[in-house]
Amino acid sequence: MPPTATPAARKFRGEVFIHADRCKGCGFCIEFCPPQVLAAAETYNRHGYHPPRLVNEAGCTGCDLCGLYCPDFAIYGVRVPLAAAAPKPETSRELAEAGGRR
Amino acid sequence: MSAPTAMNPVEPLLRSERMPHIWCPGCGIGTTVNCFARALERSKLPLDRVALVSGIGCTGRVAGYVHLDSFHTTHGRAIPFATGLKLARPEMTVVVYSGDGDLIAIGGNHFIHAARRNVDLKVICVNNFIYGMTGGQVAPTTPLGATATTAPYGAFERPFNLPFLAESSGAVYVARWTAYHVQHIAHAMAEALQKKGFCFIEILAPCPTLYQRRNRLGDGLETMRYYKQHSVIRNGASTRDLDLGFQSEITVGKFVDIERPTLQQTMEAAYRQALQQRYAGWRA
């Protein structure tokens, strides 16, 4: 179980961003994700590695441990507040397209 | 981490246009750079006041990937370069980021003397037990019995115990972690960035291509699992007892955290006493 809180009690949801083409498939993020929400994708990236894939979206706590482990700076997690007043969070893809990548 | 962001927290510190980097899949150096980025973020130091110096080797490439004032020096000479930088620009936080072969073998003398003089440097040594970039030769950290390209029947030279070497030479902050202990590394780096004096952090990291493969220890992930299972945290342990054997238990933790006047302080005090008003000090 994630050490933070049960999914129902959380005030945020975790979101994970994957920069698939940077991945070299070491598997650190998949192995050391505390709630085990990642798995190796069956598809290849452009370098021929299997990048991670989010298999259990609800389980992600946004702890960013994947981001700390990743030797290739290819993945990171964020916490999105679930407050009612907060604007509806965008999808991973929209956020990724909005910036932060060169 | 509150607001949603599309920016990887490491991104402001990286020269993204240089990615992907040269490190092999499963190598731990990138993980340590991630921890360094987090530590720098936590330390709130302005990035134009931080300089990173590295020597030659796989870890030496860190200088080329960080978006800081950085210098990739000649082999073993990261510490002398950093010493000069620190003396000329005392307001800078100077980090030396290099490997065991560079810092402890060819740069060994610089290492012990910088620790002896307590130069205000933050030395991060990524120890992969081998000379990685040059092809897997025996390093002064290769454990007894481990195979290397220049030791096909196993290494027979006693390796250095790096925390002990650092402490006995005079370092004021000494810690050892493995690439598995990411939160601890980030915490130790943040502590060292705030501390005055010669800080030394040893980070054990997998070298899947040369050390692990040659010794039939699996890949990087296998080694990270090994670190997880066989590391024991003993903060404050005597550095005398921290020898590393081949696949032995690994003692990690923060071992030394003391205060001692830095080179800058002792030098200024001595000159001020000797020269009185005639001492002008160094102005950049």
Summarize the SSE layout with pairings.
The complex is a heterodimer of chains A (102) and B (284).
Chain A: E1 12-18, H1 28-32, E2 38-40, E3 52-54, H2 65-69, E4 75-81, H3 92-98
Antiparallel strand pairs in A: 1-4, 2-3
Chain B: H1 29-43, E1 50-54, H2 62-65, E2 69-72, H3 78-88, E3 93-99, H4 100-106, H5 108-117, E4 121-127, E5 130-131, E6 137-138, H6 162-169, E7 173-178, H7 182-194, E8 199-204, H8 208-214, H9 220-230, E9 231-233, E10 250-257, H10 263-275
Parallel strand pairs in B: 1-2, 1-3, 3-4, 4-8, 7-8, 9-10
Antiparallel strand pairs in B: 5-6, 7-10
Helix pairs in contact in B: 1-7, 4-5, 5-6
Reported for the largest beta sheet of chain A, the result is: 2 strands, antiparallel
Q: In terms of quaternary structure, what is this?
A: heterodimer
Order of helices and strands of chain A: EHEEHEH
Number of domains as seen in the coordinates of chain B: 1
Looking at the overall shape, the CATH architecture of chain B is 3-Layer(aba) Sandwich
Q: How many distinct folded domains of chain A?
A: 1
The helix/strand class of chain B is alpha/beta
CATH level-3 fold name of chain B: Rossmann fold
